[in-house]
Amino acid sequence: MRPRFLGALLLPAFALAGCDRAPPESEMAQAxxxxxxxxxxxxxxxxxxxxxxxxxxxxxxxxxxxRGALHGTRVLAPxxxxxxxxxxxxxxxxxxxxxVAVLGRQALGAGGCxxxxxxxxxxxxxxxxxxxxxxxxxxxxx
Length: 142
What we know:
By secondary structure, this protein is an alpha+beta fold. The chain has 2 helices and 8 strands, in the order H-H-E-E-E-E-E-E-E-E.
């Protein structure tokens, strides 16, 4: 009888012990923790602090909610494609007064890149313009 009585006392104690655990990490917090430096931009654009992450060929603005938890608002994604695609290339880089995102989704089973995507530029982290193919910036002289 004694083992049952002891178990009856310990079971609620173990159940209550788990109540003080922190909530599970948000998907955005996990993505930020695992992101390489070329997938994250943190800086000032148009006089405002901006925190961006590129994840699965989409750019998200990273923000804190009222409870302090991280969440992301999608601000850029490549145009839709009628078949399955996978993210082949993605990056963010700073330019003077702007941020540039490179996104490339490849059709599954196809070679090369990319079915959708391109190079996009933003001066505020919210509105993006796509750079036309074939336009290259002048390279600084060495």
